[in-house]
Write a structure and sequence with these properties.
The chain is an alpha/beta fold. The chain contains 10 helices and 19 strands. Helix content is 28%, strand content 24%. An 8-stranded mixed sheet has the order 5-6-4-14-15-16-13-17. Helix 2 packs across helix 9 and helix 3 crosses helix 9. The protein is globular, with a radius of gyration of 21 Å.
Length: 417
Amino acid sequence: MRFSGLRVLREGLRGNRGWRPHWRDASPRPAYDAIIIGGGGHGLATAYYLAKKHGAQRIAVLEKGYLGGGNIGRNTTIVRANYLLPGNSEFYSHSLKLWEGMEEELNYNVMHSQRGQIVLFHDDGQRDAAIRRGNAMRNQGDDAELLSVADLRRMVPYLDYDQARFPIRGGLLQRRAGTARHDAVAWGYARAASDLGVDLIQNCEVTGVDVKDGAVRGVQTTRGAIAAPKVGIIVAGRSSQVAAMAGMRLPIESHVLQAFVTEGLKPCLDHVISFGMGHFYISQSDKGGLVFGGDLDFYASYAARGNLPMAEHVMEAGMTLMPMIGKAKVLRSWGGIMDMTPDGSPIIDRTSVEGLYVDCGWCYGGFKAVPASGDCMAHLMALDRPHEAAKRFRLDRFRTGRGLMDEEGTGSQHNLH
């Protein structure tokens, strides 16, 4: 079943009776060639690329709840490639290119909107850092423009430029950055993977990882044992818990990140705007709501809810940046469980257990990484060697100290990334 403008029109005239389910709701088989634990964006993308690019036949995605019910369904939807350090820079550049071809490849509207992202700076030191980052982005082959205050006043006149505490001195613009519809990304990859024969198994929680003689043999689930010689752990904030089932301890802390959305408003924000001093970011959804967030809650937790002090902090940052939103009513808020690494950069690597792979540690960067994460994890699982774009995302860098990628320069404290 392919989507097209003509098909949508025809179904609309027929009462939408001709649509079929987007994917098969499969039941588990006794054995597979590869198992993906986690039915979020990264897991579904991995399954799709395993089947599409590497011809894998017997693949299962195991999700303890429903597909797309984790962080892929509760985030601020920002897509960008404005990283500085080697390793991160080429990976997110690769990811942005995949985003730009995603809708055509999947034949699915993920509402990818390249509206541009502006990262503001507020002093001379931040200006120098923005220039350095912009040059690194251009050297990588991506776009970057340095904006003066005059440029910003023309583009985003509603910001508070003259505040005493955080005066706005300019910004760094990436025009190819933007947003996408988060759950549509999960649905698109699920549909495409299912069409290639991948079994998408919902309400199937993994309760154990079977390891024998140093190699993975399969998993135990609430729907029975399932055998497989290759298993990928792609479960975001639950990575440490699932890895512990295989006797592993990952260098990860799980933290809560809150996000908020207002009532629907008339179009007023044409870009994604990031406020460096306040660690605040905001955009406007296609439904009119202002979607925004800020810092982590700063304490380790598995509770998908936030605390009021951090909510207050985010609201203060928003009001400092753009007082015009002061009368907008907050419609809802939510919390996602972030898997934070000590250097703020992700892990895509083999583990010490043969046939067991891990894709985790995405910190704030998980949504924009979805296509490249899936592509690189599939490459690793299929060929047992890292993809060129993810070759620095080594697990052992935290043991050896070699190859650490502290993108923000904040040290080895998980919650500061």
